[in-house]
Specification:
By secondary structure, the protein is α/β, with parallel strands linked by helices. 30% of the residues lie in helices and 20% in strands. It is an enzyme of class 3 (hydrolase).
Length: 427
Amino acid sequence: MQGGCLLDLLDNSQEQADILIESEHGRILSIGKDLPEAEQTIDVAGLTLLPAFVDPHVHFREPGFEHKETIASGAKAAVAGGFGSVLCMPNTNPPIDTPERVEYVLQKSAEAGACRVWPMGCITREQKGEQLTDFAALQSAGVAGLSDDGKGVQHGGLMRQALFAAAASGLTVAIHAEDETIAGKGVLHPAAAKKFSVPEQPGSSESAMIARDLLLAEETGARLHLCHVSLESAVSLLAWAKSRGLRVTAEVTPHHLLLSEESIDEENTFYKVNPPLRSEDDRKACLRAFLDGTIDMIATDHAPHTEEEKAVGWLSAPFGMVGIEIVFPLLYTHLVSRGLMSLSELVKRMSLVPAQAFNLPASGLRPGALADLTAVDLQTERRIEPNRFYSKGRNTPFTGWMVRGWPVMTMVDGKMVFDARQKEVQC
Ligand code: DOR
């Protein structure tokens, strides 16, 4: 790759340099100027080269909900968003709760030939919250971690057993914290729920389960990961856990950083997401916690649904919004361009940090590292237009936002899997 600017993740500097890649083994051979001649030269002049991103939380819907997304369409969307790896949640139909189903996801991922799709395995069979899955068997089949995402494990005793077993296996458990006895059929955070006359989903349903699972993590020694943290109280609990040295990490979504319940348009159920958009104070607390490192990483919780499914009103519309193709431009524009965070810090929290939390191979801009790279255009400002998405899902409330930082090219394992200049993903 020739003529690009390389971001130094240590000091945030950018320097023009070429990268020589060994595509057969998917590794970076050397970085610098006047490198030996390559078989093929890719011109990346004007672009900034970054390690490809890692998303610890996506929903690619296969098997069972292929009309919303397939592993192939989701993986194409991921590489268009600059991602080299994603962790795919198991709330499919059937759920990913056996080794055979894990192998199915890995097979579909290999066929798609875009990004690395790492399956998450269910904590409980069929995500029913009644019996644990066979963690050792799921681990041998290749899961990156365990989660019942989409649902919380309601039974504290079962979760305790799960965390003891997970600690023995070394697998990270990613929790969707939602106490259903508190959340009920709530769809929005209290002030918005009142305004639009729909049932409320109070924040205590999330924080109560986070508190329980942090205590259990301390008791069992398990590695716990908090999915989509959205509350000031959750951030305080997380800070408490970290101060006690617990093995805990947490993610926040772009929508919980950039939107609050005050942003919701009553006519647009694309704002319906779980956990719901919270108060402005909660949003600010999550942002502060992400900036100071209490919240470790970004996750999109990319959750595609069709427009028809979403067009049935607040009570019945499914929760979720897509985000994998727009997360970097959104956060580059709203955090880096505004001087809240350095580019290198944002990139680390979208690549190395999630990879470490789930023991995934990490890419990096140095000789010998995995050649998972993305080249982004930090100059061109463009409106978010869902009809340009590769994802089948168009359900985003960010339509029309003007952002810069668009990924132009993505390489995974030394192979070019996305090139916007050729207007299509090559698989
Ligand atoms: O909004 C959400 N949608 N939150 C979740 O936890 C699950 C996800 C989905 O699967 O659609």
